[in-house]
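ok here's the first one, seq then struct tokens
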Amino acid sequence: METRKTKLGADHPSTLTSIGYLASTYQGQGRWEEAKKLEVQVMETSTTKLGADHPSTLTSMANLASTYWNQGRWDEAEVLQAKQLELCSMKLGQRHPDTLISMKNLVFVWKGMGRHEDALGLLQSCSDLRQQVLGASHPYTASTLSTLKAWRKENEQGPVQ
């Protein structure tokens, strides 16, 4: 990362990729504040240099939303993930596999916020779209269907005491 900063500049796309990798390493280590600081830097620079709807910017938004989610900062995660989903839908289309990943990420944010009905509704939409786009046997479709089934069962039984 430091070499790329020196050779290419702090705002070069390859440098931003390296910074993103370091942030990902910090995430894996549970170093959330350090990850967040780098992810904010990558997202802001990507937005300025590449545009708000560039695939690299969209990825950086999802990464920052994930860090917020892992910190339990649900409101911030929701705002960022909803914006990322909206931009993905506009840039790539609602049926694009990356848009569907973004949709499922928002589902998990809503679930974490306790918005179970909203999460189930969006998860159903995601599941339907994944079946149409990827097919019933695709691992992402299977995972979504499995999660949907488990959450429905959980909702029917109520919280475990």
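and now the second one, same deal
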Amino acid sequence: MAVTVVICAYTEDRWDDLCGAVRSVAGQRVESAVGPKIVLVVDHNAALAERAERAFPWVDVLHNRGRRGLSGARNTALAVVDGGIVAFLDDDAAADPGWLATLLGHYADPEVVAVGGSARPVWPVRRPGMLPAADAEGRGELDWVVGCTYAGQPERVSPVRNLMGCNMSFRREVFDAVGGFAEDLGRVGRVPLGCEETELCIRIRQADPKARIVFDPAAVVRHRVSADRVSWRYLARRCWAEGLSKAAVAGLVGGTDALATERDYTRRVLPAALRRELVGVLRGKGGAARGRGSALGGAAALPMAVGWAAAGYLRGRFGGAAGRSGGAAAFGGGRERQ
């Protein structure tokens, strides 16, 4: 089974991470005569592209030919992949040994069209006290804020609505059927908008209700969390952007599908987490390696995250055309392009 792994990059600030990502893919072993083909798409940064071409002569380095941003870069890669399986790995993530083989194993089922795995955080120092406590698997309820698997996601192989962008794969043929990533969605530079993979997965299922999208937590990548993402400011900005992004997805595929997973998460997962954190405050405990202050931070972060995400969603749905761009600029996002 032919497989291509796509990595998208936009800044030399992540050079060491990018090298780690490429090496982690080059070390994967799959059941085919040749290893995975690696495609690196550079998003409108000629200096980075030239550096990558010198450093990785065995990698296909492409310039983003689409709109600036992650969706345009991914679509540029799809234009050169003509079959088999295409997997996506972030430029600041490194795949564990066996990652790709685990993903590919699920494609023996012809109804499986997409498979993703888990992303475990690599913290700058330690897990920040502003996030709720981690469970036994190291997952916290707000770890999605830093691009990682969160408590509330399945703990075993399960069908899901959508996959995480840093660790996902698809049959190449599904893009011929439904089109590529929506370039009106997705991250541009450091602006933390997203949900383009959510919109794509929903579109796939709407086109073919029998299509199976599978999450396998055993397919692991290690996602580096930069120091700027462990602050209250980033938490607010990221949750606001998530609300804006979900509003955009709802406008494209409908509110029922766009928010189905989020409704369950808000009703079932977050209240239990808040109760646990409040108990930790009262008892002076916050879980392993956490104290009363950390539990207080987690208890404060949960309603804050819900509030900012809800506000962003309302702004995106009812704020007119300026909703997304204006929302990003509210936290300085308008200035943080490449």
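notes on #2: The chain has ten helices and nine strands. The beta strands are 3-9, 37-42, 60-63, 85-90, 93-95, 112-122, 158-159, 167-171, 212-224.
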